Amino acid sequence: MTVADYLRQFSYDEWANSEVLAAIRGAGADERSLQLLGHILSAERLWLERLQQQQPSSPVWPNVSLELCATQIPEIGRRWREYLEQKKDADLTAAISYKNSKGEPWTSTITDVLTHVMMHSAYHRGQIASHMRETGKTPAYTDFIHAARQGRIS
User: Fold this and answer.
1) Potential cystine with 1: which of 5, 26, 39, 142 (Cβ 3.0-4.6 Å)?
2) Which DSSP string do the residues of 114-141 spell out, in sequence order?
3) What is the CA 4 to chain-centroid distance, rounded?
4) Quick one: CATH architecture of 3-149?
5) 71, burial (CB in 10 Å: exposed 0-12, middle 13-18, buried 19+)
6) How far apart are CA 43 and CA 58, in angstroms?
7) What's the rounded Cα separation, in Å, for the pair 64 and 66?
8) Average pLDDT in the 18-25 region?
């Protein structure tokens, strides 16, 4: 994948997170859905900080509110765009070293990190959708193809 491909993926991710937030808000925020959305946002921030060789600024499982999520979604989206716009396609194969939340040292390519962030977020959005259905609520429709067909991503 190219930097342009990842920019599109992260555009989708920001849109999908916003849709999930709207669904949670519309259904009357429940603790589990909000906890999972907070985790998505925190993990996205954490991985970006790892790529930028910064110390983590928030816990992996933070306590969040609807209002905090509403401010974090566009802010994290902007930060990912800024990061990616500074990269060239060849940069994506570079390796970065970091420590995971257990303090264990690891090395991964930028491509693997970017792919992980997208898949991790989609996985947890799926958990939110399942939880909402189980509790009789309507989850957000966040399929990538839906976003693309609707012109929601660039």
Assistant:
1) 5
2) HHHHHHHHHHHHHHHHHHHHHTT-PPP-
3) 17
4) Up-down Bundle (1.20)
5) exposed
6) 9
7) 7
8) 98
Domain boundaries, given as residue ranges, for the chain: 3-149
- Strand positions, DSSP E, 24-122: 95-99, 105-109
Give the pLDDT confidence score for residue 41 in this predicted structure: 98
Q: Global pTM?
A: 0.96
Residue 69 banded pLDDT, cuts 50, 70, 90: very high
SS3 152: coil
Please identify which residue in the block is written with the tokens 């994506």. 92
- Smallest Cα–Cα separation from 129: which of 7, 9, 17? 17
